[in-house]
Task: inverse folding
């Protein structure tokens, strides 16, 4: 979890970036008026009636610092060519400046492929690189603050860890999450503290989401050690997509990542068609 000073620093940067965005060619209102609109709860409740229609989270690539090398961008591009439908840039051990530089490079790839770029945890970075959305966990920026500062038109994903109370909070009108991360399916080398819950918890999680979503379609993304051999089981058990780190990025070269993405996307689509 970020230190309180760092968290509030991120919020301050977010407000400054929002002001800059309002002053751009995309919005001709006075900056003060526009920022107030972006950050007001009234704007959120009136303008946000449904989740963006275009995101597809069926094969959701999540990055990790362990794979941050000279093949990093090539593997992301290869994954996109192989069928990755969304990318989450998650970097825990880089400076803010480095995070922004990587974000700009990855955004170029995702925009070319027509898929959303989600930034993990860092609202300031998400706004700085004009990402399509933000993903937050239980110890990150409070979810209601994240939505208020992110605005109503960007994607907000929340990690629920399979907990009904977090599902309820994520789907409250003040948060209005667009997708939900599951609890850890298996142990994962990128999340050492995660307690595996197996595919069995996906059914109850889906039931909880349906009860709280008020008729909205809110995708569930299974995460935690998921690979080709378990992707279909996650979908059959209730997930709408899978989040993948090592299964795509551990390969020696970009071609290996592309082949893995193709195989996983095929398995996911087959499982989805059978539901």
Result:
């Amino acid at each position: 979890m970020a230190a309180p000073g760092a968290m509030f620093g991120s919020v301050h940067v977010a407000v400054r970036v929002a002001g800059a965005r309002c002053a751009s060619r995309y919005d001709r209102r006075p900056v003060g008026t526009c920022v107030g609109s972006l950050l007001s709860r009234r704007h959120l409740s009136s303008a946000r009636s449904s989740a963006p229609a275009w995101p597809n989270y069926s094969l959701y690539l999540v990055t990790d610092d362990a794979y941050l090398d000279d093949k990093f961008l090539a593997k992301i591009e290869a994954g996109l060519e192989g069928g990755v439908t969304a990318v989450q840039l998650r970097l825990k051990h880089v400076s803010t400046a480095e995070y922004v530089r990587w974000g700009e490079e990855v955004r170029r790839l995702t925009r070319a492929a027509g898929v959303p770029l989600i930034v993990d945890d860092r609202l300031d970075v998400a706004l700085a690189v004009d990402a399509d959305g933000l993903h937050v966990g239980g110890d990150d920026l409070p979810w209601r603050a994240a939505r208020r500062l992110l605005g109503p038109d960007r994607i907000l994903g929340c990690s629920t860890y399979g907990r009904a109370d977090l599902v309820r909070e994520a789907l409250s009108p003040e948060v209005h999450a667009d997708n939900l991360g599951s609890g850890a399916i298996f142990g994962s080398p990128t999340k050492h503290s995660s307690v595996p819950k197996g595919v069995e918890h996906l059914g109850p999680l889906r039931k909880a989401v349906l009860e709280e979503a008020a008729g909205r379609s809110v995708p569930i993304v299974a995460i935690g050690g998921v690979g080709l051999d378990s992707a279909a089981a996650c979908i059959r058990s209730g997930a709408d997509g899978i989040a993948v780190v090592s299964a795509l990025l551990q390969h020696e070269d970009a071609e290996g990542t592309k082949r893995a993405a193709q195989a996983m996307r095929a398995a996911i689509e087959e499982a989805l068609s059978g539901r």
About this structure: The longest helix spans residues 254-273. Residues 192 and 224 are 10 Å apart (CA to CA). The chain is about 45% helix and 15% strand. The mean pLDDT is 85.
